Structures
1.
Amino acid sequence: MPIATLRAKRGVLKPATDDAVAREVGLQKLLSSRIGDLTLTVEDVLFDCLAEVTSELRAKGIAFIPAYYLGDDDFWTADRATSINVPWYLANALLWQLVNDHLMEYSREEVMMYLRHETGHAINYAFELWKRKDWAQTFGEFKRPYRDVYSANPWSRDYVRYLHRAGMFHYAQKHPDEDFAETFAVWLDPSSRWRRRYKDWQIALAKLEYLDRIVDVEGACRGAAPNQRLGQRVGYESIKETVADYFDIAHVVDPDLAEYRRDLLEIFPRRPESARSARSGLSAARFIQQNQRMLVDKMVGWIGKSDRRVIERFLRQLQALCTYEHLVVPENQRNDKLVDLTIVATWHVLDGIHRLSGE
């Protein structure tokens, strides 16, 4: 969705009513609506976030703006294309509050971090920077196999740390493509003070200076982008569930959820009370989201007659429980916890497949 269109629509938004009854009626209508039937536009905080990222790009001399759109439930960029998926439930203040209350918490700062990171991917693809020999010399081979599970060196100073602050620990070490996107996000963020922050991190600083040189001095990202392919897009219009079903708030908690809760408490520790306000570490809800696609693909392959949408809903139930219980993933146990989660999730889907399918 082009930013120009977003700006045009912002001026015609109707102010929210102060009438409590009207608000409740509106909320009930929203909860009973099928997500794919909603007419969503980018409003409120998300609008401001996208406008801010656009402003940051222009301040760096980059006129090209990626194709941000409202899609499924994660931030991601189409492979070697320029479409950036933004979760549909961040579209406006009401939906944002629902996801924070019932699924996982998003702060404005985190959303800005995800947007800068994904924008880094889109700019890399749009201007085909990854094809440059000096890009590969700086970040590594772009075509290196991409793996969901990776081993990181927590003491390395060869990589910047950006989404690290959002709980995605050492994400730049996952793949050269992620290394570039993390470096771009730090470079783009006006508050990063990257020259000062990374002055003693020789290789990480060299990557930032490389990016600064090719964009600012060489003008590698000026003018029209040679690649403006949109690539794969998964719009929110394809989601068949109602808003209430998606957030699993259409009924009272049942005994099965109590069992899920017990199992999750055996897998993940609670965040210490003293650390909750700082929101340090990776939340278990975010951890499930990051691995959702892999978990769903595995379970669909393993379990006959399984329904992908049913499994996705089940994983969202686990996310909600993790949020309520303030569960976290210890940084040095991510792989072990992923194995435990996969075993428990597969067992519950097998055990309750008929109930989950509504049969």
2.
Amino acid sequence: MVLAANDAYLSDYKVANKRIYSVKVVILGDGGVGKTCLMYRLKHQKFLEDSRMTIGVEFHTIQVERDDRQFNFQVWDLGGQDQFFFMHKAYLKGASGIIYAFDLTRTKTLYGLTKWFNLAKDLGPLPSVLAATKLDLADFHAIPQEAIQEKVGKLGFDKYFKISSKTGENIQSMWGDFADKIIESTSNGC
């Protein structure tokens, strides 16, 4: 059975009395903010030492179990460089949630979030989370806290997560918060 919620498609089936959902999630942000390393950390619980520019899109599946339900999150990492921007609308189709990411060491990536929000606005309101990456590079953080708080408010978030894919700091709390939002919206829509 396919369920539609906010133009997002969730496949839903049952195996051995367990309801299984496939949920598409996209990670959006400028090139080099750490989307690939974040996705790798989520999937493998370790840091990807040698990441390369994502050409187009890559994805991994991450399983989360809640009660009698299993959620297979298909996490799509979209290349953030401008030359790939033209193909992003097609890759967003069917998304049930969005992780927006910016790099604490590069101010322009914070302001680049507006471009990503505008790209995704046609999807309607979706569960989303804001990740400030590269927490481990504290000596190189370039964005004043006031600028971050102002942007967070303008984008409509009540909070954001400072994370490090290298050390794993705050990754699980960010992912748990995000997964719970999607599971809640899936439960409400079913």
3.
Amino acid sequence: MKGLRLALLAPLFLLACDDPKKPDPGATPSATASVAVTAPPPASTTPPPPPKKKEWKCTDGAVADFMGDTAMEADVRLKLSKPKGVIANAELAGVKSLNLTRAPVDDLNPCILPKFTGLHDLLIGKGDLEDLTPVGNMSSLLSLRCTDNHVTDLKPLSKLIHLDRLDLGHTQVRDLEPIRPLTDLTELTLDNTQITEVTALSGLSKLEKLIIANTMVKDLSPLKTLKNLKLLDISGTPSTDYSMIPSPHMKVKM
């Protein structure tokens, strides 16, 4: 009798084991369950537009208009010993030096710079300056310092044939061909620029000081003709052949 009862219960036990479990509505989803992830939008490949250049509206009045350039006006007043009052355009011709290093220089005023017809020394401070065109007709210049900016094109300087000293250090200058005519130069500074060769300098026979440190200039042979060189700085360059250095008595910084 007992054996018969076990035989009847066995099929029921098997059916119970095969019955699938119902999901627990309160159960926490598995950590390995897939999660829908929203892909970020693709990054824009369009470069930002270049900054808009400043537009200048020049006037022909008798009074000097500095157009909000307080640093220039302050230096002019200092040079003219005129702390107050109106400054006439005619007075600008008497200014011999102009220091624009006391504030960032992002552009040069093409309206007022040409009025400095007697200017000998011009110092331009660091900034985002790219265009030297307003300096191009300042033929009285003897010294120009224009450093720590984005200048690349030296064509505006090609007419400044009376320049004696030129400093273009820490700029983006690559091509020196435009300054080939500046044969009165005695000092030239081109450190930390993008220049790779100095062929255009071979005719600058009056050069006494040349700084090309931290550039990619390797060939010094164009300098062989510069018999008046007294100081040559080639530190930080890939130059290795020093046999082309003009004079063994010249001071060379390597």
